[in-house]
Design goal:
Its EC number is 3.1.1.31. The chain is α/β, with parallel strands linked by helices and 224 residues long. The protein has one domain: 3-Layer(aba) Sandwich (Rossmann fold). It contains seven helices and nine strands, in the order H-E-H-E-E-H-E-H-E-H-E-E-H-E-H-E. It has a six-stranded parallel β-sheet, with helices on both faces. A three-stranded antiparallel β-sheet has the order 3-7-6. A hairpin with an 8-residue loop joins strand 6 and strand 7. Helix 1 crosses helix 2.
């Protein structure tokens, strides 16, 4: 196993321990806790590490920061990834709240999803944010016509389209994600490190939407 693979596995395990500790702390003070995760390939090892940890999973709600508007059977579905890699082992007892409906478009489904997420344990205990090479996080893309709304609305969710991605999306707004008690950013590779460093050095959120979360404490988890 290469040094970078080893480092990423250690990172995943360290992040899993930190997230589990945060959830345990909140569950000691409240009935339920909410974990918001991001999709893609980067968090898979983290999901698998977290799924094995001891926790009162029956009292944990899990949802996504954003989702592609595709069927769960699609390889592009973040829901599919979460069910396969996180909602297993001990974490199989968690309650998962998806961000898609049977509607043809996210615009048609967003009202029902707003009702679905309204009863979750807000503010979220933990949000895990990823970041793209364009500085986007969740589905807040620099080239999206909905970016301004995503950064300013007080609604929980919004439908998103962007020229840089093939599918329409549903995303939590910056306002709702920013309310979380704890924010972790999970990145790997030299390219992502450079993008994050550039984002830290500036303040134009429309250029790099990850900057919208840099006005509060962030825990960065990065490995080569």
């Amino acid at each position: 196993m290469s040094d970078s693979v080893n480092a990423r596995q250690r990172l995943a395990e360290s992040l899993a321990e930190a997230v589990a500790a945060a959830l345990r702390a909140d569950l000691a003070e409240q009935d339920r806790a909410l974990l918001i995760v991001s999709g893609g390939l980067t968090p898979l090892a983290f999901f698998e590490a977290l799924s094995t940890l001891e926790l009162d999973w029956e009292r944990v709600d899990v949802t996504l920061a954003d989702e592609r508007w595709v069927d769960e059977s699609s390889d592009d579905s973040n829901t599919r990834l979460v069910k396969r890699h996180l909602l297993r082992e001990r974490a199989a007892q968690a309650r998962f709240v998806p961000l898609t409906t049977a509607d043809a478009t996210p615009e048609e489904g967003v009202a029902a999803l707003e009702k679905s997420v309204a009863g979750l344990s807000w503010p979220a205990s933990v949000v895990i944010l990823g970041m793209g090479s364009d500085g986007h996080t969740a589905s807040l893309f620099p080239d999206s016509p909905q970016l301004k709304d995503g950064l300013t609305t007080e609604a929980a969710l919004l439908a998103v389209h962007a020229p840089s991605v093939p599918q329409p999306r549903i995303s939590f707004s910056r306002h709702r994600l920013a309310q979380a008690k704890r924010h972790f950013v999970h990145l790997t590779g030299a390219e992502k490190r450079a993008v994050f460093a550039k984002a830290l050095a500036g303040d134009e959120v429309f250029e790099a939407p990850i900057r919208a979360f840099m006005d509060a404490p962030l825990s960065l988890y990065w490995a080569p």
